[in-house]
Amino acid sequence: MKQAGSILIVDDNPDILIAVQLLLKQHYQTVITTNNPFDIEQILNEQKIEVILLDMNFNHDAISGQEGFYWLKKILAQDPSIVVVLMTAYGDIQLAVDAIKAGAADFVAKPWKNEQLLASITAAFSHAKDKQQLGKLTRQTQGLNQALSGQKFEFLGKSSAMQRVFDTIEKAAKTDANILITGESGTGKELAAHAIHLASHRSDQAFISLDMGSVSQNLFESELFGHKKGAFTDAKNDRVGRFELANNGSIFLDELGNLPLKQQAALLAALQNRQVTPVGSSKAINVNIRIICATNENLAQAVQEGRFRQDLLYRINTVEIRLPPLRDRLDDIPLLAQYYLEHFSHKYKRVVSITPDDMKALCQYHWPGNVRELAHVIERAVILSDSDILDVCAVVGLDKVEFEGTNNALGGRLLTINEDDAVVNNSEVKNDDDFNLDRVEQRTVRAALKHHQGNVTKAAKALGLTRGAMYRRLEKYDL
Ligand SMILES: Nc1ncnc2c1ncn2[C@@H]1O[C@H](COP(=O)(O)OP(=O)(O)OP(=O)(O)O)[C@@H](O)[C@H]1O
Description:
There is one protein chain. The chain is of the alpha/beta class. The chain has three domains: 3-135, Response regulator (Rossmann fold); 160-324, 3-Layer(aba) Sandwich (Rossmann fold), CATH 3.40.50; 327-476, Helicase, Ruva Protein, domain 3 (Orthogonal Bundle), CATH 1.10.8. Helices cover 46% and strands 15% of the residues. It has a five-stranded parallel beta sheet, with helices on both faces. A five-stranded parallel beta sheet has the order 7-10-13-6-14. A two-stranded antiparallel ribbon has the order 8-9. Strand 11 (275-276) and strand 12 (285-286) form a beta hairpin. The longest helix is centred in the first third of the chain and has 36 residues, at 114-149. The termini are far apart. The structure holds adenosine-5'-triphosphate. Residues 153-157, 183, 185-191, 296, 336, 371-372, 375 line the site of adenosine-5'-triphosphate. Adenosine-5'-triphosphate is lined by residues 153-157, 183, 185-191, 296, 336, 371-372, 375.
């Protein structure tokens, strides 16, 4: 019985075309022939071909096989899922090796033996099926990756500090070196990890991330290395671990500093051996993965304090990328603010802009929550703003104020007030007939802060309050 499948035979010798066609027609449903390799492109455009049997020499005096290589490359560029078997009368081992290296699946020497040719074509069809399946799986993986990774923002920065980061990413991404990304929360460590993956030769493969801080200790090995059905009470089915899921791609281990020592040992063994053994299995699985880790902890210090294994640190930090806090790259703020403004305007269907004054205020704030905080501030402002000119600072409580350059107990709340703040923002402050106790208190607290240039301790002392009582009032009045 004939098998489903379509094959194209390309040879300039009509006798060979007829002989091979007669042979293959007995076995395959569609057998097409051409004596002109320039027809290949059109034939492939017009119908689905799975296997091509391609002559290597189309000029009578040519024996180098170079033409065959030329057409082989063209075919694979047009449709990488096609499987090509090369044929030549001048079969020699070197040519066969070169043909396979160039992407051919097999090599048949003329004159051929029918059984050998048929065996080669059968294998080629099976190879074609695998290639198609692989292509389908790769597309599914890409789709899954996109779905799993959710929305990814662009990784932006024009400051020289960020330019250096991009530069290191570009260099390191091309290698398979393990990379450790450090930086405060919200500085973009996860975005950087994703950027590394996308710039690497693994970009078509999976990018699997795992927050080490949120994995329960009991399930750590199962989560990372997988488990076999029945390995423990809740193991109702086999489970593929994150390492195996990331095979051929990259794995991003976030919040690594939170990992207990016992789990660090298991992780180190997996990284050293590039092998994982699912819980309940005795068979190790080889994994080929790029490791990217991130932490906002000082791991060198954690090593000194005995909380982190030195050998694990050396294993993961072949290249270290430090993401600078946003307050150290203020010239990135307009770019980021504008980017998130456009993003959230689109999301919430608003047409809004930021005034130059507000942009200036954003650039002066010290952003303890880094880019994440900036993005949230802009989002809140877009949602809450009444007018098209986005009064970012007013909406989110940063308006017409200057900012202390250091972190403070309020997690970055603004403490210094401009001359005209009370006038513009709080009309009641100017009202001498307003005896409402809360408003009087608010006014007095503001005045004390202003008098002491935002120094909370001095203002609290002047008001006769403890620092705790002062902070409660700052919270209460959203100062
Ligand atoms: N350079 C940047 N360009 C654009 N967006 C950024 C940039 N850096 C960070 N962000 C945004 O800030 C938010 C936090 O980024 P990300 O999760 O990568 O930070 P992180 O350092 O991994 O934080 P954490 O340590 O808390 O996990 C995300 O919404 C991200 O898109």
